[in-house]
């Protein structure tokens, strides 16, 4: 067990964060929480640094981010192992997340240099330009399920646009982010502070008027509270609040292939992904073989130590989260759903949960209506794809959706009816790396990725310049 005192944490709270390995229940670290004095000092230092950082040449900011990307790449294995220790994510997947962060930092270093304003056509004797300007102090509130990918990308986007950054990792995953911030080159350090703490610290930071923009990835209820507080400050807020993503399987596709897509979407990282498949609608024509293939794929997954590269199913992040996931499953079973596989908490240490396939599911069940965020695949069988699209379109979420079909007509109808930020046809995962999507409804606000994130992190100013009068 180690005691971690992350960079830029000044002061301590009586109870440190206790980080347990979700595969073994072993205590990994105790992390000092920042107190109110630490929060006030960090915000004051950032406010003082903001004008100088904003006025740094864009090329200097980009060069610092390239150096940080290289440093992250040099330590990708160690960072991935730390993510695995604190979240239980299998090492292969954790390494992919770290590499996504490496690429994100490098990408925004280049995108920032191309983020420019435009000249306006006005009086020929005057110059009129629109120029982007940094907002000021950015508060980045990170999730636990993919901490390095989000930290590196969002910090890089903030920094390259001239903003200074206060980052608070999730209290469930503070270690790898602290190390990643500690790898910042000297040129970037004046513009970044890191504070560790739980939701109470997050709420205190969101309420501070010194914060100019908030980026949050997490639960809907937390996002709603952040949005309400930010509204009182008339402050820009960028939120990704999770999804309850549907997968619609048409009757004209190969059921084995469709089951492989469904298993990947529902069980990757034990279902702990914002864009995981949370509910499945399958055409009756292929439902039988589809379910047989899906059950076989679920039962073929190999739980085990996340550091073992043969492991294909890691644990859930902690006991509290496992209890919530199991509660959704038990509630569905009590209301008439059938577990084709899984649904039983295993014996032994850790927070493991078996891949679970549920049939006879109804839309009012919590396992269907809300985000379970675990390795659970609830299935509803429909008689036609139009009924399936209507069912997929229901609910308060609007992050992403997937449709598997050989019909161009069905693909076009899906694009018309599914109001989500990302619509995927015939592929659960994938897509161009620079894509930007804006969540709909309760899944969030603003564009959190791609070149468009740079627009979210700046304000537009018009400069009208005329020649001075001569004597």
TrEMBL record:
The active site is at residue 240. Keywords: Oxidoreductase. GO terms for molecular function: oxidoreductase activity. PROSITE patterns: ALDEHYDE_DEHYDR_GLU. It holds the Pfam family Aldedh. It is an enzyme of class 1 (oxidoreductase). Its EC number is 1.2.1.-. Residues 17-463 form the Aldehyde dehydrogenase domain. Gene3D superfamilies: Aldehyde Dehydrogenase, Chain A, domain 1, Aldehyde Dehydrogenase, Chain A, domain 2. InterPro entries: Ald_DH/histidinol_DH, Ald_DH_C, Ald_DH_CS_GLU, Ald_DH_N, Aldehyde_DH_dom. Belongs to the aldehyde dehydrogenase family. This is Aldehyde dehydrogenase family protein. It comes from Patulibacter brassicae.
